[in-house]
Automatic annotation (TrEMBL), chain A:
Sequence ranges assigned to domain Pyruvate/ketoisovalerate oxidoreductase catalytic in this UniProt record: 23-210
Name of the molecule in the record: 2-oxoglutarate ferredoxin oxidoreductase subunit alpha
GO BP annotations, alphabetical order: response to oxidative stress
Pfam families: POR, POR_N
InterPro entries the UniProt entry points to: 2-oxoacid/accept_OxRdtase_asu, Pyruvate:ferred/Flavod_OxRd, Pyrv/ketoisovalerate_OxRed_cat, Pyrv_Fd/Flavodoxin_OxRdtase_N, Pyrv_flavodox_OxRed_cen, THDP-binding, Transketo_C/PFOR_II
Record Gene3D superfamilies: 3.40.50.920, 3.40.50.970, Pyruvate-ferredoxin oxidoreductase, PFOR, domain III (3.40.920.10)
Keywords noted in UniProt: Oxidoreductase
Superkingdom of the organism of origin: Bacteria
Lineage, top ranks: Bacteria, Bacillati, Actinomycetota, Actinomycetes, Micromonosporales
Gene Ontology MF terms in the entry: magnesium ion binding; oxidoreductase activity, acting on the aldehyde or oxo group of donors
Chain ranges of the Pyruvate flavodoxin/ferredoxin oxidoreductase pyrimidine binding domain: 261-477
From TrEMBL, chain B:
Pfam family, one: TPP_enzyme_C
Signal peptide, first to last residue: none
Record flagged with keyword ATP-binding: no
Organism field: Actinoplanes lutulentus
Keywords from the named record: Oxidoreductase
One Gene Ontology term of the molecular function aspect: thiamine pyrophosphate binding
Listed name of the protein: 2-oxoglutarate ferredoxin oxidoreductase subunit beta
CDD domains referenced in this protein's UniProt entry, alphabetically: TPP_OGFOR (cd03375)
InterPro entries (alphabetical): 2-oxoacid:Fd_oxidoreductase (IPR051457), THDP-binding (IPR029061), TPP_enzyme_TPP-bd (IPR011766)
Length: 617, 339
C-alpha cells in the first residue's frame, strides 16, 4: 500500500529540544540535526544542557541531558526561549523539560521507556501519557526503542547495540518531519565508526528506519519546511564557541608567526579547547597537560618568556589558582592569554551551567595593583575573533589578557561566516635583538614611548642577557629596587599602560535615534539582549543597545554613550558586577538586572523587563 | 641539552653586575662561586643559558649569574622552566631552588618535572631551614626541631629529598656539599651531561638560622667516619683505612653499613631505582652515614624530546603556507556556501 501523501506546512522558525538520559546520545543527535539544518541554509543557534556527571543513574532527573536547536528562515540571535517540539526519550526527560513547553507544543515520547519502574524513578504514580495531564500538548507516542530493534533484527546485532541506535531512529524521524537531508550524517557515521563497520550499518539502518517511519505512519500527518534564511554571501560552517576559540588561537599563531604554547589542566567547560588545540601540532602548536592549574599557567608563562605565544585555558576555579602567576606575568610584562570559560560558582558550583560571575575576579582578583586587559566574546563564532584580539593585545602590549568566555557561548553553536585568512589582522611583533641604551647596555624595562611596552628580548639573544623577576624592578634597568619613588612610578605606569591600550569605540544600536533607555551588556548576553530589543522595536518601542567586548580598558567613548541616555540598564548573569563598574567609573545610576540560575537569559525575560523600564522609567 | 659551541669564557664572564646580598658566611656564596667557575666548561654561550628560580634565599641566585635569568614565584620554578625548556630546545635551563621552595610549596611541580624527565638541571640548596622568612622549620628539618614557629619542637617527619626524587623515578639524582668545590663541580659536570631531569641536592649551611647543620660530614675530625663518597665502579667503603663497607645483607631489601665485609660496587646506571633508593636510605637527619655523589644516572628520553618530536612529526605533514593551511582548517568539516 502506498503511503498517504503528507501535507507540507511552511514555518518561519522552529525550536526543537532533544532530551534523554545522559547515555542516550542526545548531544550527538542534536549536533547532527544542527549540521543537517545548517546545510539547508537556515540560521541556527543551539544550546546543549547536560549534567556534570558522566553517567548519572539511568532514568533519573539528574541524568537528563538535552540539546536545543533553534532554526529559522531569518537571522536569529538565541537558541530560543521555549521549544515547539520536545523529543523525550524517557519519563525523566519529559518531566525535566515539560515546564519549558508552551501549550500546543509537540511532544514525541519514546513509549518503550514509560515502564512502571521508570515512571516510579521520577515520581510518576500514573503514566502522564494516560492520565490526561498532557492534554494541552500534541503528544506523539512512538515506540522508538522497539521499532529500532525491529528494524535492526536482520542484522544480527546484540540487543544492546540495537537499542543504543534509537537516537539515530529519532534523528531519522525528526529529519523527515522537518525535511532535513541526512546525507551528511551518513558520512559522519562512516567517519565516527571507521573502525567498527558493523556499527556504521546499524546506525545508518536505524536512521533510515526513522525516516521511513515518518513517511509511512499515520501518526504524523504533517511535514514541515523552513526555507533558507537570507544570510550574507559567504562560506559557512556551524561552530561552537570552544571550537572557534581554539581556531582563533591557531590563527593567532599563524598571524603572529610565533609558536603557540598551551599549558592547560582539564576542567569543565574549557577542556574542549585543549582537545582541539592538541590536534593542530602542525601549526607549531605545543600543548602540555600540566599537573595542576598553577603549573599550566607557569609553563605557558615560561614559554612566553622564551618567545612563544603562551596561552592557558581554564574556568573560574582555575583562574583563582592561577592568580599569583598572573600577577607575576604583570610584573614581568610578558604576553600571556588566559582563557576563562566561566561556569556557575562559587567553588565547584555547577560546572556545566553558565554564569558571568568571574568579571570581578578578572578585573580585580589579584594581590597588589595588578591591572591587565579583559575581553569577552558575544557569541560562539565571535570567540574566534576575540581570541585573535586577546592575542594581539597580549603580544603588542606585553601583558596578560583575560578572555572571559562562558559555558553558554562555549558549548552553544551558530553558523559562522568563515573569514578570509588574508584579512585577519597581522599581529606579529619584533623581538629585541640589540642593546637599547646609548651606552651599549640593554635596559629590559625601557619602554616603547607609544605602546609603553618593554622590549621582548628572548633567551638566545647574544648581548642582551638580563635578569627579571617578581621583585619590584627599577625603571628602565629592571634591577631590584626598593626605592619608594620608583615603586610609585612603576605601579602607576603598569596601570597607565593598560589604560592606554587603544580599543575600538563601543557601537550603539538605536535605529529610531530617539530611545531614552540604553541596555548595556557584555559577553554572552548579546543574543538574548539583541532579541529582546528587536521584539520591543517591532512593537513600536524605542530602545538602544550597546554591547561591550572590551572590559579593560573600557572603550574611550563609553562615558559619552552612557551620558546620552536617561536610563542605563545592565543585564548580567551575576549580581551586578559590570553595573558596579559603570556606577563607580561614570557616576551614573545604572540599573542592574540580574539572573544567576545557571541558565542564559531568555529573550522573553529581558523583553518584559525592558518593556517595563521603557514604559515606566 | 643544548649543543656545546666552542666559546672561551671564564668564571668572570658569568658574574653579573648585581651586588650579591646573601648574609656574610652563607653557603650560597660558595655554591655561586663554584657554579660560575664551572659554567665555562659547558662550552655553551651565555645567552643560551637560563637560570630559573622560585622564592627563598637560594632563589636570588639568577640575579648574580650573567646569563638569562628568571626569578619567579614560590615553588613554581620547575613548572615555568618546563614551558621554557619544552618550547626552546636550544637552551640550557637550570632551576635553582631550596628545601622550602622545592619540597613544600612546590612539591607537586618538582615530582612532576622529575617523572616527566623534563630537560632541567635542578639544584636544590638544602639548609633544612626557612631563611628568608627568618628561621621557621622546613620540610627537611629534623623532627623535634626547635624554631620560631615550633618552640616545642616540630612534629613533622622530614623528607629525604633524594628518596623523594627517586620515588618519582628521576633519571639523575645526586648529592653534594657547598664547601667541597671540587666535588660540587664534579656533580654539576655529570648533571649537565645528563639528558633529562638532573636533580642535585646541595647541603648548604645557613650560618644565621641553622648554623653547623652539616658539620658532622664537613669537619675534618668527623667527616671521614660519616661521609660516604660514591664513585662509579668502585666498592663503597669509607672511614679510616676503609674500615666501613656498605653491604647488601642477604634477605634484606636495603643496604647497610658495617665494619669490614664485602662492599657492594657502586653503579649509578642500574635501571631499577630501588638500588639508588636503598643508598638514599643510608642517611637520615642525623647524617651518621651520608653518601654523596651520583646515586642514579640512567638514560631515558626527555619529555622535551618526546613533545617536540610530536610537533616535528606533525609539521612534516605541512602542505602549504601557514595561511593556506589555516584556510583549509577553517573550511574543514561540513560547510555550505551562500551566493
Amino acid at each position: 500500500m502506498a503511503a498517504p501523501a503528507k501535507r507540507v506546512e511552511q514555518l518561519d522558525r522552529v525550536v526543537i529540544r532533544f532530551a534523554g538520559d545522559s547515555g542516550d546520545g542526545m548531544q550527538l543527535t542534536g549536533d547532527r540535526f544542527t549540521s543537517e539544518t545548517a546545510q539547508l541554509g537556515n540560521d541556527i543557534s543551539t544550546l546543549p544542557n547536560f549534567p556534570a556527571e558522566i553517567r548519572a543513574p539511568a532514568g533519573t532527573l539528574p541524568g537528563v541531558s538535552s540539546f536545543q536547536v533553534h532554526f529559522a528562515d531569518y537571522d536569529i540571535l538565541t537558541p530560543g526561549d521555549a521549544p515547539n517540539v520536545l523529543v523525550a526519550m524517557n519519563p525523566a526527560a519529559l518531566k525535566a523539560n515539560l515546564a519549558d513547553l508552551p501549550a500546543g507544543a509537540d511532544i514525541i515520547v519514546n513509549t518503550d521507556e514509560f515502564t512502571r519502574r521508570n515512571l516510579a524513578k521520577v515520581g510518576y504514580q500514573v503514566s502522564p501519557l494516560e492520565d490526561g495531564s498532557l492534554e494541552s500538548y500534541a503528544v506523539h507516542p512512538v515506540a522508538l526503542t522497539s521499532m529500532t530493534v525491529g528494524a535492526l533484527a536482520e542484522l544480527g546485532v546484540s540487543k544492546k547495540d540495537a537499542e543504543r541506535a534509537k537516537n539515530m531512529f529519532a534523528l531519522g524521524l525528526l529529519s523527515w518531519m522537518y525535511s532535513r537531508p541526512f546525507e551528511s550524517t551518513l558520512r559522519f557515521l562512516e567517519r565516527k565508526f571507521a573502525k567498527r563497520p558493523d556499527l556504521v550499518v546499524v546506525n545508518k539502518t536505524a536512521l533510515q528506519a526513522g525516516w521511513n517511519y515518518g513517511e509511512t505512519t499515520e501518526a504524523f500527518t504533517v511535514r514541515y519546511e523552513v526555507k533558507p534564511a537570507k544570510m550574507r554571501p559567504g562560506t559557512y560552517r556551524n561552530i561552537t564557541g570552544n571550537q572557534a576559540l581554539a581556531l582563533g588561537l591557531v590563527a593567532s599563531a599563524v598571524r603572529s608567526k610565533l609558536p603557540l604554547f598551551l599549558g592547560a589542566y582539564p576542567i569543565t567547560p574549557a577542556s574542549d579547547i585543549l582537545h582541539e588545540l592538541s590536534k593542530h601540532k602542525r601549526f607549531g602548536v605545543t600543548t602540555v597537560q600540566a599537573e595542576d592549574e598553577i603549573a599550566a599557567i607557569g609553563a605557558a608563562l615560561g614559554a612566553s618568556y622564551g618567545g612563544a605565544l603562551g596561552v592557558t585555558t581554564t574556568s573560574g576555579p582555575g583562574v583563582a589558582l592561577k592568580s599569583e602567576t598572573i600577577s607575576l606575568a604583570i610584573a614581568l610584562e610578558l604576553p600571556l592569554v588566559i582563557v576563562d570559560v566561566q561556569r556557575a560558582g562559587p567553588s565547584t558550583g555547577m560546572p556545566t551551567k553558565t554564569e558571568q560571575a568571574d568579571l570581578n575576579m578578572a578585573l580585580y582578583g589579584r594581590h597588589g595593583e595588578a591591572p591587565l586587559a579583559v575581553i569577552a566574546p558575544r557569541s560562539p563564532s565571535d570567540c574566534f575573533h576575540a581570541a585573535l584580539e586577546a592575542s594581539r593585545i597580549a603580544l603588542t602590549y606585553r601583558t596578560p589578557v583575560i578572555l572571559l568566555s562562558d559555558n553558554y557561548v562555549a558549548n552553544g553553536s551558530e553558523p559562522w561566516s568563515l573569514p578570509s585568512v588574508d584579512e585577519l589582522p597581522d599581529i606579529s611583533v619584533a623581538f629585541t635583538t640589540a642593546p637599547n641604551a646609548p651606552d651599549g647596555h640593554f635596559l629590559p624595562y625601557l619602554r616603547d614611548p607609544e605602546t609603553l611596552a618593554r622590549p621582548w628580548a628572548i633567551p638566545g639573544t647574544p648581548g642582551l642577557e638580563h635578569r627579571i623577576g617578581g621583585l619590584e624592578k627599577a625603571d628602565k634597568t629592571g634591577d631590584i629596587s626598593y626605592d619608594p619613588a620608583n615603586h610609585e612610578h612603576m605601579v602607576r605606569i603598569r596601570q597607565a599602560r593598560i589604560d592606554a591600550i587603544p580599543v575600538p569605540d563601543v557601537d550603539v544600536e538605536d535605529p529610531e535615534e530617539n530611545a531614552r533607555v540604553l541596555v548595556l551588556g557584555w559577553g554572552s548576553t548579546y543574543g538574548p539582549i539583541g532579541a529582546a530589543c528587536r521584539a520591543l522595536r517591532q512593537r513600536g518601542l524605542s530602545i538602544a543597545q550597546a554591547h561591550l567586548r572590551h572590559l579593560a580598558p573600557l572603550p574611550a567613548n563609553l562615558g559619552e554613550v552612557l551620558a546620552a541616555y536617561e536610563k542605563v540598564v545592565v543585564p548580567e548573569m551575576n549580581l551586578g558586577q559590570l553595573a558596579s563598574v559603570i556606577r563607580s567609573k561614570f557616576l551614573i545610576d545604572a540599573v542592574p538586572f540580574n539572573q544567576v540560575n545557571g541558565l542564559p537569559f531568555t529573550a522573553a525575560t529581558l523583553e518584559s523587563m525592558l518593556e517595563d523600564v521603557v514604559k515606566n522609567g | 641539552m643544548a649543543n656545546p659551541v666552542a666559546v672561551k669564557l671564564t668564571a668572570k664572564d658569568f658574574k653579573s653586575d648585581q651586588e650579591v646580598r646573601w648574609c656574610p658566611g652563607c653557603g650560597d656564596y660558595a655554591i655561586l662561586a663554584a657554579v660560575q667557575q664551572f659554567m665555562p666548561e659547558l662550552g655553551i654561550p651565555r645567552e643560551n643559558i637560563v637560570f630559573v628560580s622560585g622564592i627563598g634565599c637560594s632563589s636570588r641566585f639568577p640575579y648574580y649569574m650573567n646569563t638569562y635569568g628568571l626569578h619567579s614565584i614560590h615553588g613554581r620554578a620547575p613548572a615555568i622552566a618546563t614551558g621554557l625548556s619544552t618550547s626552546r630546545p636550544d637552551l640550557s635551563v637550570w632551576v635553582v631552588t631550596g628545601d622550602g621552595d622545592a619540597l613544600s610549596i612546590g612539591g607537586n611541580h618538582l615530582i612532576h618535572a622529575l617523572r616527566r624527565n623534563v630537560n632541567l638541571k635542578i639544584l636544590l640548596f638544602n639548609n633544612r631551614i626557612y631563611g628568608l622568612t627568618k628561621g621557621q622549620y622546613s620540610p627537611t628539618s629534623e623532627i623535634g626541631k626547635i624554631t620560631k614557629s615550633t618552640p616545642a619542637g616540630s612534629a613533622d617527619s622530614p623528607f629525604n629529598p633524594l628518596s623523594l626524587a627517586l620515588g618519582a623515578e628521576a633519571t639523575f639524582v645526586a648529592r653534594t656539599i657547598d664547601s667541597d668545590r671540587k666535588h660540587l663541580q664534579s656533580v654539576l659536570r655529570a648533571a649537565a651531561a645528563h639528558e633529562g631531569s638532573a636533580f642535585v641536592e646541595i647541603y648548604q649551611n645557613c650560618n644565621i638560622f641553622n648554623d653547623g647543620a652539616f658539620d658532622l660530614i664537613k669537619d675534618a675530625d668527623s667527616r671521614d667516619e660519616h661521609l660516604i663518597r660514591l664513585e662509579q665502579g668502585k666498592p663503597i667503603t669509607f672511614g679510616a683505612d676503609d674500615r666501613f663497607s656498605v653491604v647488601h645483607p642477604e634477605g634484606s631489601f636495603g643496604l647497610k653499613v658495617q665494619e669490614g665485609g664485602t662492599a657492594i660496587v657502586h653503579d649509578a646506571t642500574v635501571d631499577d631505582p630501588a638500588y639508588a633508593f636503598a643508598l638514599s636510605r643510608l642517611s637520615g637527619s642525623e647524617l651518621t652515614t651520608t653518601p654523596i655523589g651520583v646515586f642514579r644516572d640512567v638514560p631515558r628520553p626527555s619529555y622535551d624530546e618526546i613533545v617536540r618530536k610530536q610537533v616535528l612529526d606533525a609539521r612534516s605533514q605541512i602542505d602549504g603556507t601557514p595561511e593556506e593551511m589555516l584556510n583549509n582548517l577553517l573550511n574543514a568539516g561540513d560547510t555550505w556556501t551562500i551566493l
